[in-house]
Amino acid sequence: MTNTVPPMRERESPNHGPRRAGAAIDMLVLHYTGMDNAGIALDRLCDPAKQVGAHYAIEEDGTIWRLIPEDRRAWHAGLSFWAGETDINSRSIGIELVNPGHGPDYHSFPEAQMVALEALCRDIVSRHPIPPHRIVGHSDVAPGRKRDPGELFDWRRLAAAGISLWPEKIEPALPSNADFAELMRRFGYADSSVESIIAFQRHFRPANLTGIADDETKARLAALAKQAGLA
Ligand SMILES: [Zn+2]
């Protein structure tokens, strides 16, 4: 495994402020841009009137743009929650992946884009104490409000690259409904509502977005909590 980051292009986004004093950078939040193409998406991320920005954006051909310095609080997560924290922007680095998003043109993220993302993530986690279970999608921290990067994002591949988590080893013992709710909270979700379960499924069980905590969903959460040392 190499830590070499592909060459980056620079563009300046004004959409950031100071991080909350004392907040460690210990989360990584992945997004899709949800715009028709990279040009429109980058313009939006750099438009002071839009007030949305991320530290990095990655085009489908793998071009990485550095938009905001990591020591600044980029405005990417909005109203959100993870593991007791509501100021996700102060604790995280945000990466936008160019993709039209949910709609007729939503598609999986191309190889070149994934390769660039893996290299960038590896570099970021080598410089910040970000554990694998705190590498999340926007939908994980804002269920019901956000769907990105969505069920077509290959989280399993990111885990196989040693960056995030995937429930490879399923636990034979299923948690009860009460234990499931507790594990959801311990893992980071605000609650175990239908919206939060759908967010969990979008990330960890993308073939089944029912919002119902069936046995497979319970087993996957139990496996993940164990891997993360939270069970
Ligand atoms: Zn987003």
* CA radius of gyration: 17 Å
CATH architecture of the largest domain: 3-Layer(aba) Sandwich
Unreliable stretches:
none
How many domains would you count in the coordinates? 2
Task: Briefly say what this structure is.
With 231 residues, this protein is an alpha/beta fold. It contains 8 helices and 8 strands, in the order βββαβββαβαβααααα.
Description:
The protein has 231 residues and is of the alpha/beta class. The chain folds into two domains: 8-160, Peptidoglycan recognition protein-like (Lysozyme-like, 3-Layer(aba) Sandwich), CATH 3.40.80.10; 177-227, no CATH class. The protein contains eight helices and eight strands; from the N terminus they run βββαβββαβαβααααα. It has helices at residues 38-45, 88-91, 111-127, 138-141, 155-160, 177-187, 194-204, 215-227, and strands spanning 8-10, 16-18, 27-32, 56-58, 64-66, 72-74, 92-97, 135-137. The chain has a six-stranded mixed beta sheet. β4 (56-58) and β5 (64-66) form a beta hairpin. α6 crosses α8 (215-227). The radius of gyration is 17 Å and the shape is globular. The chain starts with 7 loop residues before the first strand and ends with a helix. 43% of the residues are buried. Zinc ion is lined by residues 31, 138, 146, 148.
Strand and helix layout:
Elements lengths: L7 E3 L5 E3 L8 E6 L5 H8 L10 E3 L5 E3 L5 E3 L13 H4 E6 L13 H17 L7 E3 H4 L13 H6 L16 H11 L6 H11 L10 H13 L4
Helix pairs in contact: 6-8
